[in-house]
Amino acid sequence: MVLNGQLNLDDEIHRWLPELPDYGSPIRLRNLVYHTSGLRDHSMIATLAGLTIEDSQDNRTTLEIACRQKGLNFTPGSLYSYANTNYLLLAEIIQRISGKSLRRFADEHLFQPLGMRSTLFADDVHEAIKGRAVSGHLANQTPLRFIRKTLKLAPQTCGPI
Fold first, then answer.
1. Which range, of 58-62, 66-70, 103-107, 108-112, averages the lowest pLDDT?
2. Residues linked to residue 28 through DSSP beta bridges, in sequence order
3. CA 50 to mean position of chain CA atoms
4. 5-27 mean pLDDT
5. pLDDT surpassing 80 at residue 51
6. pLDDT tens, 27-44?
7. What CATH homologous superfamily does 13-122 map to?
8. Integer Cα distance of 45 and 25 in angstroms
């Protein structure tokens, strides 16, 4: 999209997501790409609000959470802090510009032209993906939230506490 002139990495986020509040400092698309936006991670906020991972892993919910943030963790561009909020907001921007989900857009413009027939952006936490190595479920189809509780995993960690 950048190469085709449809957007610019220096575009201010409000050009594409005008409903977001004014955070006091401009956030550029490049800040989303490089995790230097200062936006808080939507998963952590969703967890504090009592939502499950399944409830909060979509563009619309992430946008709603970002719209409710009153401030940023830091001035955009000054620090790095990984947050999936950035990528989910970029996915929403791609959908608004192209009229296609990130999954469909990437499949048509990236994965298929490269011959990557088994690669996709998983955009539905409930979808069973054939051949996927990690699905978030045990053999008996126990949901992810049970696994987190059973293994005593903290939100956003990769191992036991």
1. 58-62
2. 12
3. 19
4. 95
5. no
6. 999 999 999 999 988 777
7. DD-peptidase/beta-lactamase superfamily (3.40.710.10)
8. 21
Measure the CA angle with vertex 14, ends 13 and 15; round to 5°. 90
Question: What residue spans define the domains of the chain?
Answer: 13-122, 128-161
Q: Which of 9-13, 30-34, 63-67 has the lowest mean pLDDT?
A: 63-67
| 70 token code pair | 């009153």
Cβ density class 54-66: b for 16+ within 10 Å, e for less? eebbbbeebbebb
Count of alpha carbons within 13 Å of 111, Cβ hemisphere only?
13
Q: What is the 3-state secondary structure (H, E, C) of 61-96?
A: HHHHHHHHCCCCCCCCCCCCCCCHHHHHHHHHHHHH
pLDDT given at position 125: 65
Phi then psi for residue 130, to 5 deg, are: -60, 130
